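REQUEST FORM: STRUCTURE PREDICTION
Request ID: SP-0412
Submitted by: Lab K.M.
Chain count: 1
Length (residues): 117
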Amino acid sequence: QVQLVESGGGLVQAGGSLRLSCAASRSDFSITYMGWYRQAPGEQRELVAAITSASAPTYADSVKGRFTISRDNAKKLVFLQMNSLKPGDTAVYYCNKIPPPLGEGYWGQGTQVTVSS
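STATUS: Completed
RESULT:
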């Protein structure tokens, strides 16, 4: 079974930065379309950044210009550099393939990001 381990979250003041990392165990990682998702309390999980196997990124409008997604196929890692953080970015952040798998059992534990005003 694929394992996803997210790290790098924390508490930061508005305007600050964090860099999230995701380690994926999937054997086909290098050809897998990957994304960072987030889920705020009481909200549905949403996709905020995506990256193709060739490292072409796309972003949700809410994070465009502030977040940067990247990947290291050799090490099976996906990163999310988050700058100019806002309180509205507070959420648990997850990485997974796109489209996401059905069922909660196919997600990692996520990493909590809390942005204080």
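NOTES: The mean pLDDT is 96.
Reviewed by: T.R.
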